[in-house]
Each structure stands twice: as structure tokens, then as C-alpha cells.
Design goal:
Shape of chain A: globular
Oligomer: heterodimer
Number of strands of chain A: 0
Largest sheet of chain A: none
Largest sheet of chain B: 4 strands, mixed
Distance between the termini of chain A: 45 Å
Strand content of chain A: under 5%
Order of helices and strands of chain B: EHEHEE
Number of helices of chain B: 2
Structural class of chain A: mainly alpha
Number of helices of chain A: 9
Largest interface: A-B, 17 and 16 residues
Order of helices and strands of chain A: HHHHHHHHH
Chain lengths: ~180, ~80
């Protein structure tokens, strides 16, 4: 058995497909092709963060709350999505697919590892960062996928505006990172 | 006499390993080797890329699943 795995490890196709990272250009082409397929099959552009908000709404409803009068869920189409349930929600399946796919890719490259949390500062930064990302993605009607990638792909000027401020935000974020984590 | 220096970047996410590598390498002399310990696969890509672009000699060793040592010899 060990011999077999040693042989796989040194196989050039294993290395190219699973072990080594794809070149940026390969990733870019694959993302473009799959976002076109997504648009055709589901009827709406690829988005990620909106799905998490929907999950939040479903959880809130499951706990007995009501989101019917919230602005984001008051439209008939948003109500229809919530009524249809998570199993009929293309975006939910896609997000689950992304998580499972990422795990699969990591396992295939034998790169899976439980990482230790280095400091309490990391925990605080992760929580603040997560909250800001979630809030920002909701008020901007999309994250760097829906409001940036997909938006530019369909020729929307808003995507380019988003891109400029994404870049500015990244600069500020990098400065903060160096200030607090170096 | 050239020396070897370890840089512990385990548990650090991008771009911290790269910034730390740049700072640590600046302090070393020509011929010294910096050994960057990382467990973040994106650091495994951008740290060697940066080092090669700046003309240093780079080798990567897989320590265990999901953990690597990046050897950078300052040129």
C-alpha cells in the first residue's frame, strides 16, 4: 500500500492536477467558464454572501422569528425563495459545493491540517473582520463575487466602482494588519 | 560565516508570513539562510514567488500534511 501511494505521489498528473496549485491563468479561465454556466443554469449571476443572509433568515424563522417585514425580505421574490426552502435554493447548494470542494482539494493534496490559534488578537480580529464583511456585503448588495466579479462579468458599471473601493479598502486593511500584527 | 535563522509563521494567514519574511531577510547577510515555517498554503505560493523575483535561492520542504519549510538563501 505504501508503495502504491509513493508511486502516486511522484506521478506527474497527480502533481499537476492535485498537488501543485493551478497557475493563475488556469484558475481565471475556469472561474469565467463556470460563472457563465451558473448564469445560464440558474438564471442569476454567481453570488456567495447573499446566500449566507438567506441562511440567517431561515435560521431566524426556524427559531420562531419573522423576517417578512424586513426590507430585504419583503419582496415577493425574496418571500418565494424563503418559502421554497433551502433544498430548492441553487445558491445554497453552490455554497455547500464550494466548502466540500475546497475540503476535497485540500485532502487530495494531503494539505489538511488543524491550525493552532496563535493569539487572542487573531480571534478578535477574525470576529471584527467577519462582522464587517457580512455587514458590508449586505449593504453593498454583494461581496467580492456578486458585486465585483459577477457584476463586471455582466458589464455593470457598479462592479468597476466596487473594484476601486475594494482596492482602497485592501490598502487600508493591509496598513492595519501591519500595525497590529507585526 | 553564514548562518541559518528560523522564522515561525505557523498559524499566520496571508499576507503576514510574506511581510515577516521581507523584514527578517533584510536583517540577514549575503549567504545566510532563512527558514520560514508556514502552514498556510497561500504563503507557500507567495513567499517563494517574492523571493525568486528578488533573485534569492529558494527550496521548499514539506514537513508534514499542510506544513512547509521554505528555505531562502540570501543572494
Amino acid at each position: 500500500m505504501k508503495k502504491f501511494f509513493d508511486k502516486v505521489k511522484n506521478n506527474e498528473f497527480y502533481k499537476a492536477w492535485f498537488k501543485d496549485a493551478f497557475p493563475y491563468i488556469t484558475g481565471a479561465v475556469l472561474l469565467s467558464v463556470f460563472q457563465i454556466i451558473t448564469y445560464i443554469t440558474t438564471g442569476s449571476p454567481w453570488g456567495v454572501s447573499g446566500v449566507f443572509a438567506d441562511w440567517g433568515a431561515w435560521i431566524f424563522r426556524a427559531l420562531g422569528g419573522s423576517v417578512d417585514r424586513w426590507f430585504a425580505y419583503s419582496s415577493p421574490s425574496a418571500q418565494a425563495t424563503l418559502e421554497a426552502g433551502i433544498l430548492n435554493h441553487a445558491g445554497s447548494w453552490r455554497n455547500i459545493g464550494i466548502i466540500v470542494g475546497a475540503l476535497f482539494a485540500t485532502l487530495m493534496a494531503s494539505g489538511f491540517k488543524f491550525k493552532k490559534i496563535k493569539s487572542f488578537k487573531q480571534v478578535i480580529a477574525a470576529m471584527i473582520g467577519g462582522l464587517l464583511m457580512g455587514y458590508g456585503a449586505k449593504v453593498a448588495l454583494g461581496c467580492n463575487i456578486g458585486a465585483f466579479f459577477s457584476s463586471i462579468a455582466v458589464g455593470n458599471v457598479a462592479g468597476w466602482v466596487f473594484a476601486v473601493f475594494l482596492f482602497l479598502g485592501a490598502i487600508v486593511g493591509s496598513k492595519l494588519l501591519v500595525k497590529f500584527f507585526m | 560565516m553564514s548562518k541559518e535563522v528560523f522564522l515561525d509563521c505557523l498559524g499566520e494567514a496571508c499576507p503576514i508570513p510574506l511581510v515577516k519574511t521581507e523584514k527578517a531577510l533584510a536583517k540577514l547577510e549575503k549567504g545566510d539562510v532563512l527558514i520560514v515555517e508556514v502552514d498556510h498554503s497561500c504563503a507557500m505560493k507567495n513567499v517563494p514567488e517574492w523571493a525568486i523575483k528578488h533573485g534569492h535561492n529558494v527550496e521548499i520542504e514539506e514537513v508534514e500534511d499542510g506544513q512547509w519549510n521554505i528555505f531562502i538563501e540570501k543572494v
